[in-house]
Every structure is written in structure tokens, then in C-alpha cells.
């Protein structure tokens, strides 16, 4: 048969695509395809799945498309940007990528910076249940942020309500942890097998006690959720010593973390490599593991799976990586994306947006953004080729 697309010469094997799904995998597949992409020596992975991002409307949201095409992230789980009142805004937003959602237990979602669960009337269980039931293909779980600023004096009551929705709809709950109260142990003790604790290596919450071990032992999943202030190298290193590795690796990418310290998912993956995690394990935590956690399509290079694909150069280049508290480690490998496909379609280049005006940036970040703009302008203002690279499109008659 003639394939639509063939990624030839890839590691670990060739991948052929027809009709938006993977049609064949194996070494040295026949070069019978409408488009043959030579990716010799490069790593082909399933499209990366970022389990914790903010791409919906509101204070934190970013446009994923300008990041997806250069990073290999094809599925962006919006982790609570929208609630029952605002979910339709997410549905109406056109995306190049896939955007499943975790519905915020607060119906107002993240329209502001924080505080969405201080008024418990926003945490309407019947409304959230109805919303999940009406949007089953989109909503894959519930998100509850539990920290001092978000819940105020309501303690773990918003989480109890989120879990009630999860029980009624048969979906997992992702809980954000941060500054106390409520106490971390009180949060963890409520979680069920299959629920997720994000910001699992937070330097603010420092989840290292016996309650974390008990939660993991009963099937609670740990998600990295890097974010602006929720990832500390020393905490994760201690967790690895205790056998508490994250089940999934996500960025919590939003308008404040995108200019740093997160930057993107491949950079976050390099941070796990920097503390000694093997590349194969890291890849599993951004593909198959998040797909299983939320029942998402993709996450594997198997025949019949969606042809969401990422192609990387894996370069043995030692480089510095930084956590949320400016601790630095050295990663031995740099992951450089060279192509990203969604449903077998190559994502086109897209220029990233600048951070919104409410994001405070350092002078160095401002200058870096301005320098990037100048460099792009200079690049595009140069003619694409000189005369030697052209053909006469309309030849003159002799």
C-alpha cells in the first residue's frame, strides 16, 4: 500500500502513517509513501503529553500552538483553567493540538490569579457533574487547587466536593498542593487510587512524609507539575532516594512559567535527566503514563494509534538547568525537537506571544524577548535566496 507519510531511518524503527493513524512500524519499511521524511539517526517518539498546562481562558492561559510545533507536545491537558461557567470558551478555541481538560471544581475556573474556591457556592457539585456528563470527550477529570490563598478558610471542603464529582462521574481528581493550611497530610488522606497529586516535588509543600508514602502505596499518582514555584531539585532527589519517583512529568506551563523557569516540556525532561533518571523512563512519563492516567488516546507507537509523533535530535551536550528556586544542575543530554505531527500532519511554525502585562519579568527576560524579536526580524528581512537559488518562472521568448 502507499502510505501518506513515512518517517524513515528513525530510532527505534520506521513509522508509517495513513489516514491520521499509525499504519505500520518496523525496520526498513518500504519507501512507498506520498511523503518520505528522512529522520536517520533521530529519535521518534509518540507525541508528548503534558498532563498539567494552562491553555484555557483567564489569568494563566497561553496559546499552545507556538510552543507545540517546536517541542513535540501534541496533547496539552488544561488543568483547571476552566470551570462549569467557562468551559465553552475552551471548546470554542481552535487549536492545532489536542486539548483535553480537567474541569475546575470552582465554576469560575482560573479567571483570576487565585481564590477561586474561597466562595463555596462556586464549588457546585451538581453543576460540575452535569458539565462532565455533557462533555465526556473533552473533560477527563477534575482539578482542585488546595492551598492557603485558593481555599481561604474552607480547608479541604473544595477537595471533598471535587472527589464527590469524581465518584459520581468515574473520573480522577488532580489536586494542587502548596502553602498550608490546610495540612498536606489532610489533603493526601482523602485521595483515592488513580487520583493525582501535582507539584509532587514542591519546595513549598515539601511532600516527603509518611502520608506521601501511604498515598502512593494505595495508588495515588505523583505528577511533577513544575510551574513557577513548585519544583525543587533537592526535594525530588530526596523523593527518589525514598522510592517516590513521579509517575508523570508535566510542566504546569502558563504565562508566568513560560519565560522561565519552566520554558517547555523537553527542558523539564532534561531536568529529570540531570538528576540521573534514564531517558527511557522520562519518555514513558510524558507519553504512555499520562495517557493511561486520564484514558487519553496516543502515548504509544503502535499500529492503529493516533499518528501524533515527535522527532528529536538527542545531543550529548552538557548544559545547565534550573528549578523554581534557582538551584542549578547539569543535564548530560539536550533534547532538540525537529518535527511534530498531529494526526500525521506536520505542525507549521508559529511565533510565540509575549507574556501578558500582568506577568512581572526581570530586565534580563525583557531583553531576551526583545533580542529574539530583533533576530526574527533580521532573519525574515533577508531575501530567502539569491539569484542562484531561483528559477525563471515565466521565461521570456527568444
From TrEMBL:
* Ranges in a coiled coil: none
User: Taking every annotated instance into account, which residue ranges of this chain make up the domain Amidohydrolase-related?
Assistant: 43-323
Entries under Pfam families matching the protein:
Amidohydro_1 (PF01979)
Q: Which domain of life is it from?
A: Bacteria
Protein name as it appears in the record: Amidohydrolase/deacetylase family metallohydrolase
> What is the scientific name of the source organism?
Paractinoplanes hotanensis
